[in-house]
Automatic annotation (TrEMBL):
This is IclR family transcriptional regulator. Signal peptide: none annotated. It comes from the Bacteria. The keyword Transcription applies. The keyword Transcription applies. Residues 60-245 form the IclR-ED domain. It comes from Pseudonocardia adelaidensis. Residues 1-59 form the HTH iclR-type domain.
Amino acid sequence: MDNALWLLQLIGERQALRVAEAADLLGVARSTAHRLLTALRRRGFVMQDRPNGAYRPGPALYEIGLAAVSRIDIVRVARPVLEQLREETQETASLAILEGPMIRFVDCAESPRSVRVGNRTGVVRPAHASAVGKAILAGLPDAEIERRYPGDELPPATTSAATTDPARLRAELAEIRASGFALNWEESADGVCAVAVALRDTIGQPLAGLGVAAPSSRIGTPDGIRAFAPVVQRGAELVLERLRSPS
């Protein structure tokens, strides 16, 4: 156990570690280092970009760190941007983080309109059925998507509009990577649509999802919610600027 924890600390500090380096640093055989790293990879604490490549921090390790330290910072830093998005769009702006195959809304700035998407702070939704969740998932490597969704079907969502097909999800995530934003049309809740982007750290890991949600009856078509994408993207850039240089 001590060697495994030490490995996690080394990978967190160095951001990349090969089996031979791990063995030398731990003072153990390469087979032992490989066994430890393989066990950590199965649990998502480390990952490899390619077979026999260096081991890097995995999403499980990242999520623990975010839960322990960064979540409070990102909520604090993002709050003024959520309020700005609400003013620009007159719709509800939200911040969410990934928790396994789910996302949790950690802050919202609720629309001032009488008909609106309500404040969802604390609400948990399937990641694959929400714009913020899909935006975050699109920032993960394919191997991590496979780890989170190993079966032939995705977890059930709350509406019939959400896909249950992992292949279809992977195709949509590829489109999100290309476009830079994710859409949700009544997949997480009836009558609700949303657009979202991922907030990424300096090495490209997704920190959280930033999105705008609105009643689909008012927006009318997916193109209507897609029109908010540039505003949300600018908001994400502002959050990242604030995270790098917090006041």
